[in-house]
């Protein structure tokens, strides 16, 4: 009986771990506007990557880390251009 619980427990942990890795849009580290203001090379690289996203899928990824990161990079760029 203990072996059965152990097997189900391990199976649950593996499944839970892999389900978190399956969404590649949330695997991007989330950076703030302040971060991108200080690190302009990363900001330009992120904006370049965001521009590669087709318009069809851009709306779908808005709530993911990738979508929020794109918005933060664009906000940082526009705040830098104001000065």
Give a structural overview.
The chain is an all-alpha fold and 83 residues long. The protein contains five helices and no strands. It has helices spanning 2-22, 33-38, 40-51, 55-58, 65-82.
Name the shape in a single word.
elongated
Mean pLDDT: 79
Tell me about the biggest sheet? Answer: none
Strand segment count: 0
Concise structural overview:
This protein has 83 residues and is an all-alpha fold. Helices cover 73% and strands 0% of the residues.
Map the helices and strands.
Layout (H helix, E strand, L loop, with lengths): L1 H21 L10 H6 L1 H12 L3 H4 L6 H18 L1
Helix pairs in contact: 3-5
Essential attributes:
mainly alpha; 83 residues; 0% strand
